[in-house]
Amino acid sequence: MHDEAVERTTDGSGRLCDLTFDEIRRLNPSAKHRLWSKFQGEKVPTLREAVVESMHHNLTIYLDVKGHANQMRQADRNVVTALTHRPWHLSHFGDGTPRFNSFWKHNLYMMMDVILDWSLHSFLWRLCGVSAFLIQKNFVSQEYVRHWSSKGIQVVAWTVNTFAEKSYYESVLESSYITDSLVEDCDPHY
DSSP string covering 119-188, please? Predict the structure, then answer.
């Protein structure tokens, strides 16, 4: 489950932490998906089921641990951790619309965005001991991939949703990506 609550991605309601796995298992994870009619009767998989299915399709799994990733990495060096970044996230929504109407507040948050970007790219990646850098697809270039590769860090773009984008990431950038659909083009996701 991606969110703290289940409303956005299932036919259920409530906070994830308040539900038992049996209750979660009864939810329909395809209820709000654009291809819901093709996947009626689907159930939320166990981690084992998800891993087996991903291996069957030769997919890489990215588990989004909400907190404590550094502790996981310290406990087991084989755990791969990553930083996730969308430039200008503090001052703008994903579609580029400013978050704040106030001139001063908007500019303050833009300055915070600059400091965050600088911190992530200059020392936080090393301090956190990351193996990958997940970044919103619109900010990835060949130079960006080369820069991080030279440091032993893998770049993973999100969310790459069209055939043209996927082809570019696979053949030109030779970089991994996260997508909402393996089969068809779908709407942009910020």
Answer: HIIIIIHHHHT-SEEEEEGGG--HHHHHHHHTTT-EEEEE---SHHHHHIIIIIS--EEE-S-SSS----
